[in-house]
Write a structure and sequence with these properties.
This protein is of the alpha+beta class and 193 residues long. The protein is built from six helices and six strands, in the order βββααααβββαα. The radius of gyration is 19 Å and the shape is globular.
Length: 193
């Protein structure tokens, strides 16, 4: 499938080796509990590349298969991933897991005890900087604008995030994309008279 890049240059859309919805919405209580773990977010990230077995995921992360299997089960129970195919291997059936949706929309409320900024903290945990590289690049801006306009900007960021994850896979490094529109505790100036 092809799309149009901002400069009207056709781009290939990353094709997974399994079918999935563009979006899946899950309840906030379920989502926050399932996603508030770095191993689980790493599994979800890798499954945007292709379907994988628990053994393949464990090998990629350098973690014991039992540990990764525990987290895979939690993601499956929460409805974030599912078995997308099976394959006989010796006397067993190997399960390949895939995401239920390319984008996960969290609905409802955040349960007590779960940090609502866990995704941002996870991004910071995985971010790296190599001297001489053009990236990372961050910018932070604040503006006193109506909430409706802030929501419009958030919707545009979601569209850009969709475009980002649809890029064909190549290269030898995974790059992250962080974007957000958020309320702040910054003070406001009174209007000049």
């Amino acid at each position: 499938m092809t799309g149009q890049h901002r400069d009207n240059v056709p781009t290939e859309r990353h094709q997974l080796d399994y079918e999935l919805a563009d979006e899946v919405e899950i309840d906030g209580t379920v989502a926050f509990k399932a996603l508030a773990d770095p191993t689980r977010t790493a599994v979800l990230s890798m499954l945007l590349e292709r379907a994988a077995t628990t053994s393949q995921l464990a090998a990629a992360m350098g973690k014991p298969k039992g540990t990764v299997g525990y987290h895979v089960k939690a993601l499956e129970d929460s409805g974030l991933i599912r078995v997308v195919r099976t394959q006989p291997k010796r006397a067993m059936i190997e399960k390949y897991y895939g995401r239920c949706g390319r984008t996960i929309v969290i609905g409802g409320t955040n349960p007590e005890g779960i940090d609502p900024l866990f995704m941002l903290k996870d991004a910071v945990r995985h971010a790296t900087s190599v001297e001489g590289d053009a990236l990372p690049m961050f910018t932070v801006r604040t503006a006193r604008i109506p909430q409706a306009r802030a929501v419009e900007f958030a919707e545009r960021l979601v569209a850009l995030a969709h475009e980002y994850v649809e890029q064909p896979r190549s290269g030898d490094r995974v790059y992250g994309f962080v974007a957000g529109v958020y309320p702040t505790t910054l003070p406001t100036l009174d209007r000049e008279s």
